[in-house]
Amino acid sequence: MMQTSARLLALLSLLQVRREWTGQELADRLEVGPRTIRRDVDKLRSLGYPVEAAPGVAGGYRLGAGGELPPLLLDDAEAIAVAVGLRTAASGGVAGIEETSVRALAKLEQVLPHRLRRRVSALSDATSAFGVEGPRIDADVLATLAGACRDATGLHFAYVAKDGTATRRKVEPSAVVYSGYRWYLVAFDLDRDDWRTFRLDRIRGRVRPGGRGRRRTAPGGDPTAYVKRQLRSTGGDDTPAARGRIRLLIPAAQASPRIPDRYATVEPDGEHACIVSTRGAWSRNFLVWMAVLDVPMEVLGPPELAETARRLVARLGEAAAAPPPETPVTS
Amino acid sequence: MMQTSARLLALLSLLQVRREWTGQELADRLEVGPRTIRRDVDKLRSLGYPVEAAPGVAGGYRLGAGGELPPLLLDDAEAIAVAVGLRTAASGGVAGIEETSVRALAKLEQVLPHRLRRRVSALSDATSAFGVEGPRIDADVLATLAGACRDATGLHFAYVAKDGTATRRKVEPSAVVYSGYRWYLVAFDLDRDDWRTFRLDRIRGRVRPGGRGRRRTAPGGDPTAYVKRQLRSTGGDDTPAARGRIRLLIPAAQASPRIPDRYATVEPDGEHACIVSTRGAWSRNFLVWMAVLDVPMEVLGPPELAETARRLVARLGEAAAAPPPETPVTS
DNA sequence: TTCATTGCGGACAGCAGCTGTCCGCAATTA
DNA sequence: TAATTGCGGACAGCTGCTGTCCGCAATGAA
After folding, report:
1. Total-model pTM
2. Which B residues 55-94 touch A at CB under 8 Å?
3. E strand or H helix at B231, and its extent?
4. Which residues pair with B278 in a beta bridge?
5. Residue A159's pLDDT is what?
6. Protein-contacted bases of chain D (C-beta within 7 A)
7. How many CB atoms lie within 10 A of CB A113?
8. pLDDT tens column, B25-47
9. Other C-beta atoms within 10 Å of A146: how many?
10. Are B306 and B299 in contact (CB under 8 A)?
C-alpha cells in the first residue's frame, strides 16, 4: 500500500501540528494498530527525530527539539508567512542574514504551489512601502537569481551599466552576494567571455532562464571576496563623497545598537560623540532616522544633505505650525 | 535496514538541495539501484510531490511546484533565517500576516535545536532597533504563548493591569490575537474563574508553563471577535483621543499605498487631501513616516503631536545649521 | 540522420521487514 | 490502589521492496 513511508511523514506532520498525542489517538488517525505506532516512533527516533514520550495517564508523545531539524510541514498560510518573512529579511529588513534568507527563499519558492505564489507577491509588495532605506530589490528577482545559481542554469536579462548604456546579457551565474548595502550577481558573461559582477538594481525587466549552463565557480573560489575586490578596484558609486555623515553627541556605544548595521556605520568621535556614515549614498530617510534618535546632532556633509535637512525642517515646521504660532497652514 | 522510509525523506531532501539530478546520481548517493530510484520517485509522486523528469541527455529529475507543499528540509542557517524572518513579520514588521507568522513560528521553535535558538534570539534582538513603531513585543513570549494555546497547556505569568496593579495569573490560554495594533492573549483565568484578555505588552517577566490544562474555546468561538468586543466595551487605551491625525495635501488614492495599513488609516478629505490617523496612540515615528512622504501636511491633533513635531524640527534645525547660518552647533 | 544518454515501466524471484496479536513490565497520576 | 499509558519481546503471515533484465520512448549533440 505504500503505507509505511507515507505514514512516517504523516506521523511527523501530526506531531508538528499538536504537542501531545497518545499512542491510541495516533493509531486511530493513521488507521494502524498501536503497536505499529510504537514501531514508527522508534523509526523516527532512529532517524534522528527526538520524539519524547511520557507514560502514565498524563502521558503521550511529543516532538521535542533535537540535534537536527525535522522536515517542516507547513500549511498554506504558514508557507506564505514564511515566504513573506524571508523576503523582507532578504531585501534588507534584517541585518546579517540576507544571503541565507535568499537561499532559503529559493528553496521554498521552488516548491511553492502557484496558487500561493501570487499571494506572497501581493503581500510583500504591499508591505515594501516603508522600511529601512536602501536600493529596493525585487524579491522575485532575488529568488530567481539565487535559484539559477544553485541550479547552474543560464540567464538572460537586460542590464543598464553605470554610464547608462543598456545591454542584453547572457550569463552563467555563480553566486548572489550582498555587500552590506547592495546586491550583486557574480556571473560568467557568455558574450564577453569573462566574469562580470552585476548590480541587481541595474537589472531591468524580467530575468529569463537561458538554457543549461555549466556550473561556474567565481574567480578565486569565494564570490564574496571577488565582489569586494571588484568594488575596491572599480570604486563603485558608493563613493565616500556621496555618503551622508552626521555627528551625534552620544557615545558610539549608545548609538550603535540603535542604528541598523546594514545601512550605516558608527565610529566614535572622542568619548562623547560619534560619527554615523551611510554605507551608500545618503537619502532623506537617513536624516529622518537620525532625527528619531532624538539626540543632539550635526550634519557633517555633504552639503546637499544639510540642504535636505533644511527642507525637511520647513516641511515639519509647516505641519507643526497648526496650534500656536506663525504661518497657519490651511489648504 | 529502515531504508525505504528514510530513503524517501533523503530523496526529497536531495531534490530540494539541487534542481537537477540524474537517476544514476541519486542511485549512487542513496546506495541503491537506479530502478529503485525510479520506484521511489513514483512513490513521491503518488504522495503528491510533483517530481518532474526529462528524458534525454539533458534530462534528470527535479522537484516542481505542485498542489501541496512538500516538507521543507532546511539546514541550520536556513532555519535561522526563517525563524528571524518570522519573528520580524510577527512582531509587526509585515502587515496582515502577524498571526499566521506566530503560528508558523510556534511550529518551528518547537523543533528548533537549542544550539540554533540562541542565535535566533541574538539576531532578532540586534535588528529590532528600527522598524514600524508599535508596542514592542518579545517574539519569545509570542512564540511561547502561541505554543501554549496550541498545546492547551496552562500558563503562569505576572501581569500589570491598566491601573498599574501587578498580579500573578494562572490561566488556560485559548488564542493569541492581533488587533492590528496590539497583541492580546485570550485565556481562562483559573483564579477568577472567568475569561480574560491580556495585553501582551503588560505581561512582565517570564511566562511559565503551568501544567496540563483543558483545551479552551473562547466565548463565542471566535477569539478575534471576542477581543474586538472586549476592546469596544472597555474602551482600551487606543481611544480616538490618543490617535495622531495628520492631513496630507495629496489625494487619498496616492497616499494609501505609501502608508502601512496596520499602522494608520487613510480617509479622503475632499478630492485633493486626505487625513491619516494612527490606529493606536501616536508615536514619534508617525511624524517621521509622514515627513518621509515629502508632501505638504498639517498636524490636526492631538496637541502633543504638534509639540513633538516642533521638537523634531528643532532637532533637525540644529543639525542643518552646520554649514551656513545661525547657531553653530559644536560640542 | 544517427547515436548516446536518460527516463519508463513490466516481469520475476527472493527475501527483508512490516503488521497485528498477545504478553508482561514500568512509570505516572488520581 | 487502580487506571492509564508507553515499552518492547516473540511469533506467524504475508506485503511489498529490491535487484536484474528487458525493450521502448524522448531528447539533444555530433
Report:
1. 0.76
2. 58, 63-82, 84-89, 93-94
3. helix B223-234
4. B264
5. 92
6. 3-10, 15-21, 25-29
7. 15
8. 888 888 888 888 888 888 888 87
9. 24
10. yes
- Going by their DSSP bridges, the two strands B274-281 and B243-248 should be labelled as antiparallel
CB within 8 Å of A226: residues ≥ 6 apart: A177, A186, A195, A197, A218, A219, A220
State which amino acid sits at residue B187: A
pLDDT at B158: 92
Q: What is the mean pLDDT of each run of 10 residues along chain A (331 residues)?
A: 75 80 85 86 83 78 77 87 84 70 86 84 57 58 84 86 87 83 84 87 83 76 84 64 78 74 76 81 70 76 76 69 44 38
Terminal alpha carbon distance of chain A = 75
Residue B275 has pLDDT above 80, yes or no: yes
Alpha-carbon torsion (B242, B248, B252, B257), positive or negative: negative
Long-range contacts of B227-233 (CB under 8 A, 24+ apart): B227/B177, B227/B179, B227/B184, B227/B186, B227/B197, B228/B179, B230/B197, B231/B179
- The answer to whether the CB of B318 falls within 8 A of the CB of B327 is yes
Question: Residues of A numbered 104-123 whose beta carbons fall under 8 angstroms of chain B's beta carbons: which are they?
Answer: 104, 107-108, 110-114, 116-117, 123
The pLDDT value recorded for residue A326 is 39
Query: Which residue, among B242, B255, B223, B236, has the nearest Cα to B305 in the 3D structure?
Result: B242
Closest to A34 measured CA to CA, from A24, A44, A42: A24
Strands, DSSP E only, in chain A? 51-54, 60-63, 153-160, 166-178, 183-189, 194-199, 203-212, 243-248, 264-269, 273-281, 297-301
Q: How confident is the model at residue B328 (pLDDT cuts 50, 70, 90)?
A: very low
CA closest to A108 among chain B residues: B72
Q: Find cell 469596544 and name the residue.
A: B232
Q: Output the distance from A110 CA to D18 C1' rounded to whole Å.
A: 31
Higher pLDDT, A309 or B175: B175
Chosen from A284, A312, A329, A330 to mutate, greatest number of chain B CBs within 10 A: A312
Let me know: does B141 contact B203? Beta carbons within 8 Å: yes
At B203, which amino acid appears? I
Q: B153 near B211, Cβ under 8 Å?
A: yes
Q: pLDDT tens for residues B177-218?
A: 887 667 889 998 888 888 989 988 889 888 887 777 677 788
Q: Is the peptide bond before B296 cis (omega within 30 degrees of 0)?
A: no
Pairwise CA distance, residues B60 & B63, whole Å: 10
